[in-house]
Write a structure and sequence with these properties.
With about 190 residues, the protein is mainly alpha-helical. Helices cover about 60% and strands about 5% of the residues. The protein has 6 helices and 2 strands; from the N terminus they run ααααααββ. It has a two-stranded antiparallel sheet with strand order 1-2. Strand 1 and strand 2 form a beta hairpin. The longest helix is centred in the N-terminal third of the chain and has 34 residues. It starts with a helix and ends in a 26-residue tail after the last strand.
Length: about 190
Amino acid sequence: MIAAVFLLYVIVEIAALVIVGNAIGVAWTVLLFLAGSLVGLILMRSQWRRVMDGFRKATRGEGSPSLAVADGALVAAGSALMFVPGLVTSVLGLLLLIPPTRWALRPLAVLLAGKRAAAFAAGGDAFAGTVGYAARMRGNGEVIDGEIIVKTPETTEYVASNGKELVLEGEILDTDTPTRSRGPQY
């Protein structure tokens, strides 16, 4: 399969080179290829800056993480195509590096990446200092200090993780209200 795709790539690039070379001449074709490469390098630099700014905004909660990831994927694909030799790949790479084309292709990129990638990218807001999905699922943020308790099979005594006998102290506040249990109650 890979050999067939590579053969198709070579045929398409050679055909494009011959057609463009016959239409505008060999010298202009070489000049077009060099100019496209130069424009591609300039676009890669500026668009990677824009993508990194989008990532920074998304981590601060000012932008959408899924859009930043989609833009990053499209710019990465365009950059990779710019390094593959050929006129067709250079044109495709340039199209992916131009912001209006990326804007039009962004929904397709998100669709192709699937819902799992979008959900993964949406989890990035937990690092932005905002309350993300994982933080909302943890509760109200109240921290209760605790210790792991291990019941040894030899005795009916409860032993703390440091090997010492466990002494429980406390006060029962309300026995009528059911409480949510997250594990075995000892």
